[in-house]
Recover the amino acids of this structure.
């Protein structure tokens, strides 16, 4: 393990290059001992590089929102990553698989933030800052070899965020306990929105807390991907679709 100062810029560049060149990289934890604070700082630098290339921020995503995943990683806190316009795919649109190293897709609930949120305001009511909710899917693509990473690794790697697609926006509503169906080729995954912290609305509260501690901005128009409602399925060529009961349908086509 290292005792030297963490090279934030160098590690952000390494993860950024892995994403841009579609080439995996070993877990940082193989050779380094980074803290969770270090990991969020690397993530910020990584996002800074994307912004310097002209990408704009479109929102945030939560990960480790299922009890099973938290237990697997030995953690009790959700993680937050950032979304950019370069990751957005239109509903019914196509995405080239060549953009990714080993993509997987998962069903999500998306919220839209209607006005800027000041996480330091003790009176802020995060639920009232949301004006819409939609079915969504996230494509995750760890930049680490074989999807093998630690808790701090995955935070540094922007929580495996790679792309996302949002279905039709609906008015704000209770989306707890909705049946979820994800289909990718011949594979089907059934689940419930209850897998997202018991109720996806809890993801908004968890986000507010993390955004205050990690200085992650929440702006009007930002999308919040609340977390996965089932385990992820490898994304292959063809249609991937997700249905959320009473909320709607969202599709994307993977192109080989
Ligand atoms: O739920 C997620 O968005 C995944 C977070 C990162 C963990 C992974 O890559 O499996
Ligand atoms: Mg996700």
């Amino acid at each position: 393990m290292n005792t030297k100062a963490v090279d934030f810029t160098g590690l952000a560049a390494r993860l950024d290059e892995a994403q841009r060149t579609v080439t995996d990289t070993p877990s940082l934890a193989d050779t380094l001992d980074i803290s969770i604070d270090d990991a969020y700082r690397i993530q910020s630098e990584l996002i800074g590089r994307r912004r310097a290339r002209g990408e704009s921020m479109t929102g945030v995503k939560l990960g480790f929102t299922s009890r099973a995943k938290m237990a697997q990683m030995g953690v009790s806190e959700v993680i937050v990553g950032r979304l950019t316009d370069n990751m957005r795919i239109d509903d019914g649109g196509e995405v080239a698989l060549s953009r990714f190293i080993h993509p997987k897709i998962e069903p999500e609930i998306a919220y839209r933030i209607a006005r800027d949120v000041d996480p330091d305001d003790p009176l802020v009511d995060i639920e009232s800052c949301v004006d819409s909710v939609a079915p969504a899917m996230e494509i995750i693509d760890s930049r680490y070899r074989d999807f093998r990473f630690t808790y701090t690794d995955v935070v540094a790697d922007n929580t495996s965020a790679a792309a996302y697609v949002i279905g039709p926006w609906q008015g704000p509503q209770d989306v707890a306990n909705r049946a979820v169906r994800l289909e990718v080729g011949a594979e089907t995954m059934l689940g419930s929105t209850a897998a997202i912290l018991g109720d996806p609305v809890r993801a908004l509260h968890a986000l507010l807390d993390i955004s205050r501690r990690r200085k992650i901005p929440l702006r009007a128009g930002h999308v919040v991907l609340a977390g996965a409602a089932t385990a992820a399925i490898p994304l292959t060529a063809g249609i991937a679709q997700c249905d959320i009961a009473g909320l709607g349908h969202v599709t994307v086509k993977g192109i080989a």
